[in-house]
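Below is how a single chain appears once it has passed through the pipeline. First comes the sequence as given, then the structure the pipeline wrote out for it. We keep one example in the README because the format questions we get most often are answered faster by looking than by reading.
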Amino acid sequence: MREIVVYTGRTTPKGSGVEYAARLCAQFEAALSGLYIHPSPVELMPPFGVPALLTEMIEAARQTEAAAIAAGGTFAADMRALGVAHASWQVAEGHAPSVLAHVADWADLLVLERGAGTAWSSPHELGVLVLHAGMPVILVPPRVSDARLERIAIGWNASPEAMRAVHAALPLLRRAAQVILIADTRRTATLAPGWKPGFDILAYLHRHGITPEHAFIDAGEDEAGSALLEAAGSARCDLLVMGAYGRSRLSEWAFGGATRHVLHEADMPVLLHR
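Resulting structure:
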């Protein structure tokens, strides 16, 4: 894990999410890219906008972008103070999910701060970012800045999303002193069709030098999220790893019930992968 991106959603590269990303980078000697994305004025323009309005919006966008660029002047020095040797601040313009999908071509991990002060405070906006980012995402709850990795929980239901999340989290799991595999007994049994190649999660983790402890939950979809958080919280975990399970709804993606509950109620960072 050598390239980590933190998307702040603010013109200033500050906040607990940025500090969390920096402390995570310091542990892996990774490079950190701070990213601000400003929407294109053309995308914000009403369908029947007048040229004068478009001119004003373009000028306002240029001023915002200039302020964001200027705010990054001290970013590298601030990150060095937190132990990050290589840090850069980048400003982009466009549709955020599309920009993040482009960044995913070279980044190993995206860090997002969750909270009311961000541009993705609504469930739909957050879901679009996570499900379309194209890379593993760590969602950091408000006021959490310490990237501890002593205890990590895996929310396991044998889904392809969970498999990809575990694979992406291997560098973090190897550093943990304790890994707890929290298995959903109902969904584990139903999401592994016999005609597909078998996958033994315990054997997979053991081959990577990880020997997890076991915990189990038995809950329906509506209760699975709260049961998972309760199990991870009881074990005092620093990070929860799980698949970002989504289902297609026409041209959009919507989170499944368990994923949605965890994202909005978790008081610990959550690593997700679709």
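The two ends are 18 Å apart (CA to CA).

See the next section for the split statistics.
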